[in-house]
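Researcher: Predict the fold of Mads-box transcription factor.
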Amino acid sequence: MGRGKVELKRIENTTSRQVTFHKRRNGLLKKAFELSVLCDAEVAIVIFSTSGKACQFSSHDMDRTIARYRCESGLPPSNDQHRSRTAEFWKTEIEDLKKTADRMEAENKHFAGEELLSLDAKELKQLERQLKTGVEQANTIGAYQLDEKEGELNYIHKHI
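Model: C-alpha cells for Mads-box transcription factor follow.
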C-alpha cells in the first residue's frame, strides 16, 4: 500500500511547517549524498530556512563546485575573485596617482626656484622655457586686463 498524494500548498501551521521542512531537508540531503556516492557525481546543495539559517551539503569543496558551476554556465566569477581584481586595480591606480603627485610636487618646487641643483642641463633649459612661456602669458593677460580697466575708467570719465 502506497502513500497518498500530498497537495502542494503552503502549510499554514508554523510548527507543522517547520517539522516538514526539517524532515524534507534531511531527506534531500540524504538523496544528494546517495547520488554523489552511487554515481560519483559532484553535488552541492544550499538550503535557507525561513528563519534565514543556511544548511549545505557538498560532495567536494563547495567553493570549487560553485566556481565550476559559474564557469560552466557562463556566469561572471564570484565576488571574491572580482574583489581581488578590483583591489589590484585600485592599488595600481593609487600608486600611479602617488607618482604623478610626487612629480607635480617636484615641478612646483622647481618653478618656485627650489631644488634646482637636482636638475641636469636639459631639464634646466626646459624649465627656463616653461617659465618664459608663463611670464609671457602673464604679461599678455596683465596687458589685456590693464586695457580693460583703462576702458572702464574712460567710460566713467565721459559719463561723469
